Amino acid sequence: MAARLYELHREASSDEEYLELWPGDRELFGVLSFAQEHATRLKGDAYRAAAVLRMQLAEWLRLAADPFQLSAIDDARAGGTSWREMALRLQYLDRHGEPNPGSAVNLRKRLYVAVNGQPGDRRQPQVADLIDRRAVETRLAEARFIKSGEARYTELDAAARTLLKHFKAGEIRTDPDDDGFWLEQLAEVVDDRRDASERANLVVYVRGLIRETAAYARRSEQPSAITDQARQAMEAAAALAEPSD
């Protein structure tokens, strides 16, 4: 955006000395200020295009500053700054001219939403509590996933190795036009499960390979397995990879 702004000014005013004072493209606030100051030097489509770029750049700068302000607030609080003092510094005052600590608290919550929320989240203080609840739910879901993975890991590991053996023997049909991503991934990770989270994630690769193989079988209208042993290995792996409640 900064480079395009410069190009618009250069194309319209290539002989103007003011361009020698153009800030570097990394000085984005300086670019915004400079482009605003010299906006009327552009005419017609260039004027309109530059105005839109200034709008986008200002929005980008505002959003880019959110993580820094959130971090500064948290650091100030950790250092002992009260919400009242923070409100005073930010000039969040009530109708009597007194600092309003609640406004500073709400600013922190809005910033928290902006930095940690999802794209559709509205920047409102109450949404900060929703984000915290989501984080708790995510941690609980991860814990359940890991617990479930640990419970079936020994069987799933054996099933995955048996599955790979039948693939290597050519007893399970694979799409010749497919890149073999899931097969390669499973072969790479099966011997590299060092902690509970990694052991639990083995199911992801087994599911991916089962889905890919089943999809090819439907497209080709042929059974996935060529031998009974391979068919049994597929069925056993699929059963173990089924999501658990």
Strand content: under 5%
Summarize the helix and strand pattern as letters.
Answer: HHHHHHHHH
Radius of gyration: 29 Å
* Alpha-beta classification: mainly alpha
Quick one: biggest sheet?
none
- N- and C-termini, Cα separation: 49 Å
- The total of helices stands at 9
DSSP, total strands = 0
Q: What best-fitting shape do the alpha-carbon axes yield?
A: flat
Helix content: over 70%
Low-confidence stretches: none
Average of pLDDT: 88
Structure description:
- By secondary structure, this protein is mainly alpha-helical.
- The chain has nine helices and no strands.
- Helix 7 runs antiparallel to helix 8.
Explain the layout of strands and helices.
Elements: H1 2-12, H2 28-37, H3 44-78, H4 83-90, H5 101-116, H6 125-168, H7 181-189, H8 196-220, H9 228-241
Helix pairs in contact: 1-3, 2-3, 3-5, 4-5, 5-6, 6-8, 6-9, 7-8, 8-9
